[in-house]
Amino acid sequence: xxxxxxxxxxxxxxxxxxxxxxxxxxxxxxxxxxxxxxxxxxxxxxxxxxxxxxxxxxxxxxxxxxxxxxxxxxxxxxxxxxxxxxxxxxxxxxxxxxxxxxxxxx
Length: 106
What we know:
five-stranded antiparallel beta sheet, alpha+beta, 106 residues, single chain, SH3 type barrels, 5 strands, 2 domains
């Protein structure tokens, strides 16, 4: 009829690579909205765990609030006092937030 058979069979614009353009665009959007912020948060959390010191007020991922009593650099655990006389050992990665930082002793 009005469209030649050769043009109708070729797919028109899809032959020039424009078919992959939306997929690439969606991947770029996912990178900037999901992947990059997650990597940034993971880096900040790792730096926070590396900066833990004795006397810091922390919150664990389980919701416990306590004060760091002992930090060993080569260990993956931290001793935390959750109330007077009650000390627990927690895995360093489970520290969710540091509420109060102490000044390092000179």
